[in-house]
Amino acid sequence: MTSDAVLEIPGFTHVYSGKVRDLYEPEGRDGQLLLVASDRISAFDFILDPPIPDKGAVLTQLSLWWFEQLADLVPNHVVSVDVPEVVAGRAVLVQKLDMVPVECVARAYLTGGGLREYAADGTVSGLSLPEGLRDGDKFDVPIFTASTKAPMGEHDQPMPFEAVEIEVGTVLAGTLRDLTTRILARGNEIAAERGILIADTKVEFGLDADGTLVLADEVLTPDSSRFWPADQWEPGHTQPSFDKEFVREWLLSDESGWSKSSGIAPPVLPAEVVERTRAKYVEAYERLTGQTF
Questions:
Q1: Pairing between β-strand 21-26 and β-strand 12-17 as defined by DSSP bridges
Q2: Residues 265-272: what's their mean pLDDT?
Q3: CATH number for the domain formed by residue range(s) 98-245
Q4: What's the confidence (pLDDT) of residue 1?
Q5: What DSSP character marks residue 44?
Q6: Where does the chain hold its CATH 3.30.470.20 domain(s)?
Q7: Over 60: is that where the pLDDT of 3 sits?
Q8: What one-character-per-residue DSSP string does 129-165 give?
Q9: CATH class name, domain 12-95
Q10: Ordered alpha helix ranges (H), the chain
Q11: Higher pLDDT pick, 19 / 208
Q12: What does pTM read for this prediction?
């Protein structure tokens, strides 16, 4: 198991840690960063304990695979996978980008936070939807539902598209919407052949030195997306999944004894939940890529 502590990597300076990833600047290479995926897992804006073994490697290798599948749609930030041995398999050298200050979410199915908002007022991120939709219902085409990028420990808030236009400009907002929904549509074309539905996904973009929009961070992973087994899809209730939703469901269950509204940190994950979460991440990787992890 990789430690969730920040590593000392010779030739690299640690500059930032998020919920899952750590960033390092390589000495003597301006314009690049070392992006290291840890085994940390977060839910409801808390970093949970313990980490999930091999999670960082699964996210990194699956993102690299997806970047190749999406290369004709949008350039990505990967420079090289030639990284220090201590983080081999779970790190990549990437372009340093001016990150777009919007969480770009596309939804192919109604579930999760989108469902909660729809149940309350019939909209998702300000977008009006037809009446009578159920948990797990499919949209005719993927919809774009952005949210704010909140500081760690705070909640992202839904952003109507008009707010995205104000934040980044009309042209860039339109491009973000187009690319985000096309990434999910392409993802579902590929995943469907492998028996998986991708209900929704979150992607991040940045601008390079030339002003080109670049896909960054991770893409179509069990951390950033909901993966459902296609043969078990049945609208009207929560779907079984190959992703972080399993952990969220355990935290919200009576078994955990934790309340989301309590404001206190969640309990330690039981060994069985850790093992099953790892197995779900590995199964998602293997089913999508056709490769053994």
A1: antiparallel
A2: 96
A3: 3.30.470.20
A4: 36
A5: T
A6: 98-245
A7: no
A8: --TT--TTPEEEEEEE--EE-PPTTS---B--HHHHH
A9: alpha beta
A10: 55-69, 112-121, 161-168, 170-192, 245-252, 271-289
A11: 208
A12: 0.93
